[in-house]
Please model this.
Amino acid sequence: MAAPIAISTDVLVIGSGAAGMYAAIEASRDGAQVLLADRSLIGRGGATIMAQMTVAAAIGEETPDDWQHHLANTLAAGRGLCDEKLAQLLCEDAPDCIREMERWGVGWARKDGHITATTAPGHDRPRCVYVDFINTGPAVSKTLRTVMARNPAIRKAGDLCIVDLIVSGGECTGAVAYHLSSGAPVVIATKATVLATGGLTRLYARNSASVNMGGDGYALALRAGASLIDMEFVQFFPIGHLAPRLVGMDPIMWDPFRYKLGGRLLNGRMEEFTSRYGSDEDGKYVLTRDLATYAITKEAEAGRGSPHGGAYLSFEHCTAAQLRAAFGPVIDRLAENGIDLTKMPVEVAPIAHYHMGGVKAGADMTTEVPGLYAAGEVVGGANGANRLSGNAITEALVFGRRAGRSAAARAKNSMPEVRAGDTEAALDLVDYQGPGASQANTAALIGQLQAAMSKDVGAFRTEATLRRALASLDALIADYGDRPAGERGNFDMRRLDWFDMRNMLTVSRTVTQCALNRTESRGAHQREDHPQMQPQWQAHQRVTLRDGKLTITSEPVAKQALAS
Ligand SMILES: Cc1cc2nc3c(=O)[nH]c(=O)nc-3n(C[C@H](O)[C@H](O)[C@H](O)COP(=O)(O)OP(=O)(O)OC[C@H]3O[C@@H](n4cnc5c(N)ncnc54)[C@H](O)[C@@H]3O)c2cc1C
Model:
């Protein structure tokens, strides 16, 4: 075996979205030397840079607000499943993070000299700040990248895919990675590790995120001995772009259009239909994501969908001047795609967008594995069964900052010993070349997994579809083999796909099995064969992996608030 590249650092942060970058900044501020690793380009690989809309925080500059109102709305949307200490942390620390981002130059949109905010569904007042012309995520990423660039205590390593965490004597002591462009194996020894790898929406064929969102962090955490909670709660964004073809634009960009301009949701017969499903929108934007997903899906299933199987979204009531005033350069980009909103509706349909479940974490972002912290979307519980619009970037900022602080505190300890045996299994996989290597077409397998998850574990599930999905996953496991496909020592997509598939299979199984167990409908988890919410299901499902076997247990919801 080629000798791995050995790196040692106080704090390793895995993932450079908002959570990872904020964690790196905070850990270095508290005196730690940090390595920030990402399988993509630093600060450009995950969901953060794609997010174009809003960030929820009770800053109350325009309309009086308080974090307790934000918390009340978050808990209501979470349908009784929020981990209240995490939800409180998210809401209470949010204004401070927003103001720090402002000092760092993010450029939140302003009106009359103060930061302006918009109202998103489920929030009881204007609370969602933004950077104008749907530029919020790129501005957040750029701001954090700029702060890091001035900081010599943060080393950055892009193209570094973390394959497994290292566990020595029950503690996390680093990670095994491979460098994507050279295939070189890498061992990173650390005093503390922050997992900030984002979500899992790549498990679904139609998703809003980047290819790096295959749920690596959930699989890494499970294999290291941490637990996951609420894995059945995948959020589908109701109005993901469907048609006509749209190149180079965010598929969920219609949300900010709706914030500003209302917009009418119409079925294939050009009728408004949401009143059939409990809410008359009347051209406004009031429907929460789970209800809108339900309304559009059911309308299409009833044969009243738009030509591509979704709904129409129309801004034809707006003048060209109104559209330009609201979205300036975005209107030109739409025109390049042949879309003139004054003359035509677009088609939209639900799309996998965000994951409420994830790694079980305490208020200081500790996981059950000492030395391992989690931050951002990879953390489960803060948003319960359904996330409010704008809460995800907030969660990334708030939890990232908290995780960085906790990791830096642990990094005051001495460097733990990493023995060769602790890295052997992961290095064997990274370096494997020889008999028994998977011959599978790994890209095709990923496509099959995504198709099975979309068809059978989508926004609406039944026992029959979930059992069929488990059978599909079993068949895929048999096909993909237990030794990596492709070449070591080179850039090889087959090898990367094999490692991705390894994680996607594990994570898909947790989502599907938890969805099968939960015989009720709650928030984003909708069981058509169990349409009601059941009081006995006001509980988390906790997933652990021991000796290769997934175990799922029920756990009461943490109701205990933090002292503030
Ligand atoms: C199109 C879109 C629009 C959105 N709009 C909004 C919005 O307006 N408001 C809002 O609040 N939320 C929004 N969200 C959700 C929000 O953007 C995310 O929840 C949030 O940015 C997640 O931040 P994060 O730092 O946890 O993860 P990410 O930003 O996703 O970053 C994770 C990073 O981890 C890296 N990574 C993953 N696996 C590995 C590995 N094995 N090794 C090394 N690196 C790895 C990835 O490359 C990536 O760079 C949107 C999401 C999408 C996809």
Summary: The CA atoms of residues 353 and 473 lie 21 Å apart. The chain has 13 helices and 21 strands.
